[in-house]
Amino acid sequence: MDVVSNVRRHLASWTKGGESECRNSLFAPHCNPSDANCVDTLTTAYHTLLCAALQTWTPKYPITPVAFVEFVQSVLGTLPSSSSGSAKSSMNVMAFREILVDMIWSVDTALDEVISDAKITLAACAKQDTNNNVSSAMVKAKKVEQTAEKDKETVQVIVKKFLDLETVHPHLCRERLDSAVLASVGLIADKVAMDKKEIRTRTGLFYKQNKFNLLREQSEGYSKLTSELTSSLGPSHSPVTGRPTEPYSAIEERARPVWEKVISLIGYFDLDPNRALDIILDVLSVHLSTHYTFFIALLSFSPWAGCYHRQNLTFMETSLPPGSFQGKSLDEILTLADPKMREAANFPNDGKARVLAQVLGFKFAYYQLSPDDNAMESVKEEYQRDVATRIAATTVSQLAMAAPLESSGSQSTKSKPTPQAEVRKISELKDVNQKVGLLTALLAVGALKPALAILTKFPFLVDARVEIADLIIRIMKVSISPLYESLLVTKERNPSFTQPRARYGTSGITAATGRKPALTLWAPTPPSTYNTDFVFFYPDWVDQVPICSSLNDLEDVIEPLMKFIGVHVSRDPLFLTKFLRLGRTHLQTTQMPIDPITKKTTGEPDPNHPIRSFWFKVLRVYLLRALTLIRGNAVCTVEVWNIIRQYSTTCRWRLYGEWKTKMYDSHPELQVRYSQAKSETKAILRRLNTNSNDTLSGTVAKLAHSNPCVFFDRAVHQIMSYDNLANVVIQALRYVTNMGFDVLVYIIVDAFSDPHKPRLKDDGVNTADWLQSLASFTGMLFRRYSADLTPVLTYVMHQLYNGQTTELVVLKELIWKMAGIEPLPSLSDAQVTAMAGGPILRIESIASATRGARLDPGDAVLKETQTHGVLLQYLELLTSPSVIPLSEYANRVLPSLGDLGVVYGICAPICMQIIRPVLQASLLKSALALQEQERKASEEAEKRLKAALTAKREPVFSRVASPSNLGTSCVSETSTEVKPPTEEQLPQEDVSMDAELAASAPPAEVGGQIQS
Q: What are phi and psi of 855, to 5 degrees?
């Protein structure tokens, strides 16, 4: 529309510079007439100019036919024609001549249609009664007819001038213009004779079939043809690489004379060319894996080569830079990934072989393959019937289908039918679906574009023919292999796992023989046997596979390919494991930095990050659905958990909820697996008991790995009905993975939050049996296994916040089962007195055998309500030194006394009950400090007493002093140090120490605490 507007704008000022502006605007398209956009521009522009020279379409700004011819000539005159670019310029002129002739033909055809419509209008008016409206319509139609006929004459004049000026070639006009125009410009002598000749020629081409005289054909010719082909094959391809052992030029040199001999044989023995091609293809099918290059070279010299061009030996492959696939569609990615298509884009005249399938003309043979496109729906209907049969087989009891047993004593009087009387049904051979065969062949040789085109048209073929999914997985495995090797393979693999080992025989150890490589047509390649390694015959199939060079390429390359196979990605756990590990690495790039001190992340990652959103989508659409179809593979389950654990509990449970309710209905294979898993779950729970735990634990784990929602949902509902099943189920979960326990916690909380189940019995007082059983099972589960308890506690907290106290039974069972703390039963006076003591005394007075007495709750008469009982349980848990030290309870857990009453609205007795352990600890600390002070004071008093007793002892002299030295001796003897007397030397009548020591002794401890 922009081209038409620009041309009309130039026509408005045609004589005032518009002609030159129009010429300049068409200069660029004229320089590249091979481009599709330039062709559209030139065709539209010249069509608009030619219509302006005619009167049929009443142009607003008309020009004369002479002006149109002169304008075309002036445009061609301004095109570059230097010696260096003369060849290219001539090609551009030839391309423009074709565009000009096609445009003239389209205008002439449009004028014929206008004349035909006018004649139809005149004939219709002639049959009607004559009135004013009919007369005006006839006049208008006659005028339109006359104008169109004049314009046809104008077109003929324009063509004549172009021929005179050699603007267009006569051969091109004879090929594309109508016979009336050709006759008027003098290119044909007789229009009538030419029309008859054209009719006869068309009849001969379209309605007559070439007949070959089969009687004149000689079988010797076909024998010689077969012998010539097989004797000229040459050496076979290398079984190690699948490539020819000789250069391709040598193969072409050998194939050229063979094709000349084939032509001679067809002519000498009068062979049918179609049958000759059939024999060539038959021989090719026999030697396809070992000599396909010879037949490609042979057919390249034949008329059946089609668009095939022989290989260019100077081609050098160049790798793509990282990030080349980002933001591009799958079609663009496949174009970039194919080095031959990149070379064709750079050198349009140097085409190459795309794939083997294109050489044989499969692109054009698609529409001759069976069944018809309309009949392809039968494949889908057959698959749906098969799914319905498999689902019905899981619901039918095999015992009920068994025939009744006959009594051994009874003898049948009826004679058995003879074998001759039995009617055997002959199974009818199904028609081979050639389109499926073509699709698998294209995928096998790496022709992704035509294969995905067929698969886009018939997406159900992946479900009906699962080998298609295997081939696409094979392509994706090659695509991610370099990225996986560079990021996640840190050490060299042990080759002993893939090599044959020595065997022990009667004569001793026999050394293992090396495997021999063998070429195969099967794709994916079959696994190796003891003595054979299979190699795919066409090694170049990987050339067109887009290779992932970064983790971001997983979104652009792998995910679009996974859309075609969906849940069938589960068919290759090895590829799925590699893909999951790359996904875990990709998600780790969105994590916040890790604190070197605490070894924890400094914050939560952005939930709206594009990478996290992409992998969440992959989990929903592919991974969880694929995990459902994988049987008993714990590795895949762990790898899925490594990705899903990086999301919050809310995101994980969104996935679990969809997995449980909607995912199984999204695909027929998932419906079959759901029916099978439900049947397996019923069989396991039916046989599960204390004696069968060891044998069924592995079976339970295998089912829980792939279908945890199905198994755990059924098991939890059974436990809600039969509480004695809880302990058996818990013992059977010993091999379940972390993901299985995470799903189990979701199933438990989902069962707790069911609004349709009553929380109380009919009496309105006691807890419902299902709630009590499920709460008890929850407590035993978290006591036995280290699952995440946070969601259950969060659910109980939200229920309490909403005023629902019935879920307190869950908290009671958790504390009872995990910490052994049971609500207090009725106590004696001595036990009530002992409860004022320390933790050890309280345990000994209430439950001396265990941490909490396993008293039957029905025999316990609680002094408090259920809420108060759970509160006491909870406080006992918090104040247990083995759970939380008392200092942390006082400083980190417990609010202040004022906040308990004002902020939280707790009554005074309960506040004192909560804060009493802290007060007791404070009193005990003060009492111990006072006791320590009294002990020190007593020690000081004892020392003073001993000093006083020592001072009362009389001095003892060793000799009598002389009178002259009496004063001095007394002083010296008295000042000497006196040793403390022994126990025998103390006077027995002195003051006793027992009364004073008893008076200074510290007060006795009652029950480990000071009595206030």
A: -85, 140
